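Input (Anhydro-N-acetylmuramic acid kinase):
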Amino acid sequence: MARRLAIGLMSGTSMDGIDVAAITTDGAGFVRFGQTMLRAYTEAEKQVIRAALQVAPGLQDRAERPPELALAESLVTETHAEAVNAFLEATGYEATDVAVIGFHGQTVFHAPDRGLTVQLGDGLALARAVGVPVVYDFRAADVAAGGEGAPLVPIYHAALVARSELPLPVAVLNIGGVANITYVGRSPAEMVGIEPEAGDGLLAFDCGPGNALIDDFCLARTGRAYDLDGRLAAAGRVDEAVLAALMAHPFFDRPIPKSLDRNAFSRAAVDHLSTEDGAATLTAFTAAAVARGLAQLPERPETLIVAGGGAHNPTLTGMLKLRCNTAIVPAADLGWSTDGLEAQAFAYLAVRHVAGLPISFPGTTGVPVPTVGGVLAVP
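Output:
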């Protein structure tokens, strides 16, 4: 298959900004990393997105655009265009060098049980603004076919695990606003160019809260939308009774694959705690949810590779080591991009779409058959 230069764009549920990443790939086993960049959201931009998040649960149709969502979609599209143009200027690439852009958009609501998943972003407008074909709306086809619509990154994880030569099974943990696990139980090199079926060793699921609860709690208590280096949590004490109550949520007993909305869990359980104890308890909640997720896998993985924003939180990674009973390896130690991994993945998925290869599978989203997701917009 042809190797293409692709750019991926990811604006995650942590809402810190837009990750931009370039890779050269055939959408199967070949991946060569390019440069990455973050275009941070301003506080005013974050407020527009937060307003959309408040309104989105009332949607009855994914195409509805009440004023808050219309404003946020315009903002998301414009800022992504700015990010692409800034990335091209910084890297020296020309638009004509880029075969395709993978545009995830901004998730504001995810309820596959209602047949709804909403990612804001106008793919055609972005393609016209930057002069490059854009693949977008990656999740809708999977949900329409009966899948969870998430997570979508596992086939890219499998491609990277194939390069690592780590002993199998391996699990990859991405800690964004929501945390998700990919399980690679058999040769990933055999999987990335074909259509994995259920039970073939590629499994994935959202396992619980990632940074979202911690970030929202810190914003409410301190005005800063994250716990810098896990310092608040490190200074606090985990309330084990509150943690047990949080872990009693029925989501954790659901079979895999499964997925979560960013706001599936409430931080109200820690409202009575001090700032430090609340941060410690919510951080322990994320770690305990990961441990519960690992227990649902067919085998205990030899290695847990940790990526995403949560990988920068030493208090969280320390709690993972205590609770998960497996070797923890930061993605950076393998030469992977800790922060740009998901953006790279959507570049990879865009190339798979162009090549007609599926991006979601029975073992990763519960979709009945491997599904080619996404919509192609040509400028």
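The CA atoms of residues 89 and 95 lie 10 Å apart.
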